[in-house]
Amino acid sequence: MQGGFCMKVYLDNAATTKLDSRVLEEMMPFLTEKYGNASSIHSLGREAREAVENARKKIAKKLRCKAEEIIFTSGGTEANNFALKGVAFANRDRGKHIIVSKIEHPCVLETAKWLQKNGFEVEYVGVDEFGIVKLEELQQKIRKDTILVSVMHANNEIGTIQPIKEIGKLCKEVGAYFHTDACQSFTKEDIDVKKLDVDLITVNAHKIHGPKGVGGLF
């Protein structure tokens, strides 16, 4: 503080970001006069639907995937829940073994605990002193009946970027689905779903100067 003036410095962008003024400008018409339900067939509904689909195309372009492969959610937490529970219950006839890293976001760890209580076998893979998943340990734990592996792309607390491509290769060898929470890395790191060998990717808006309550799942 100098001369009675206090300057606020925000250093918590890894947790959430300020809504960008350009984003707010794009949103405002849909909060005021363009308020139609995107599922309605009248003009306001069609206008809203067009905006939703244009947004879907933009997200798909960033992930190098098809627009129809993007599902919008209420945030990263819902997308992570959707990914883990969806894959688990859709593939329980093939196996019930799931692997997640020990340093996942709490919403992934809590979902893993819930799945464990509901009949699935969950194992946790450790990390080294830099927070990088131990690939040898993962290779030892992954099995033919492993149906899902979930490891975040970039850690939300220490920033470690995981060897996603290598993990994806291990998953493909046993036919396991691979999910990565990319909320922290989306738009900051180049993400190509095909090159990374991932099956599901979680993203959200509030980490990249977008609104809270918006997420997506590839």
Automatic annotation (TrEMBL):
Q: Look up the record and name the cofactor or cofactors this protein needs.
A: pyridoxal 5'-phosphate
Identify one Pfam family in the record: Aminotran_5
Q: Which InterPro entries match?
A: Aminotrans_V_dom, PyrdxlP-dep_Trfase, PyrdxlP-dep_Trfase_major, PyrdxlP-dep_Trfase_small
Q: Tell me where in this chain the Aminotransferase class V domain is found.
A: 9-217
Entry-linked PANTHER family: CYSTEINE DESULFURASE (PTHR11601:SF34), CYSTEINE DESULFURYLASE FAMILY MEMBER (PTHR11601)
As for family, the record states:
Belongs to the class-V pyridoxal-phosphate-dependent aminotransferase family. NifS/IscS subfamily.
Name of the molecule in the record = Cysteine desulfurase NifS
